[in-house]
UniProtKB/TrEMBL annotation:
This is Uncharacterized protein. It comes from the Eukaryota. Keywords: Coiled coil. The lineage of its organism: Eukaryota, Metazoa, Spiralia, Lophotrochozoa, Mollusca. InterPro entries: CSR-E3_Ligase_Protein. It comes from Potamilus streckersoni. It holds the Pfam family Dcst2. Residues 45-79 form a coiled coil.
Amino acid sequence: MNHPLINFNRNIVVMSQSSTCGQEMAYNKTKDLVKSAVAPFAGVVENIRDILDRLQKFAEDLRKTYERLKKTIEEIGAAIQRAAHWVGSMADICNDKIGQPYRRCRQVFDDGENRCK
């Protein structure tokens, strides 16, 4: 190769390296600029994530407490139902043995009225 061609080739290489260096510098500056712009929001985003995690844990605890309370209320309701059934069966037994209170009372007054006649 002759000298002007070698010089032209060298100039192309230097220009290409210079262009690559300029692109890298622009890329790095842009990256630094974006990082600087986003940095204040990173803390906010982290705080929001922390709050959301705490809210999810609270909601899970609340759900578990609700389930326990629901189960307890169902058990109390079942116990009341069993007690009412028992009281009802005891009333039936008493009514069978000694008669129903209204009928007994009515019978006493009817007997008293009949004796007075």
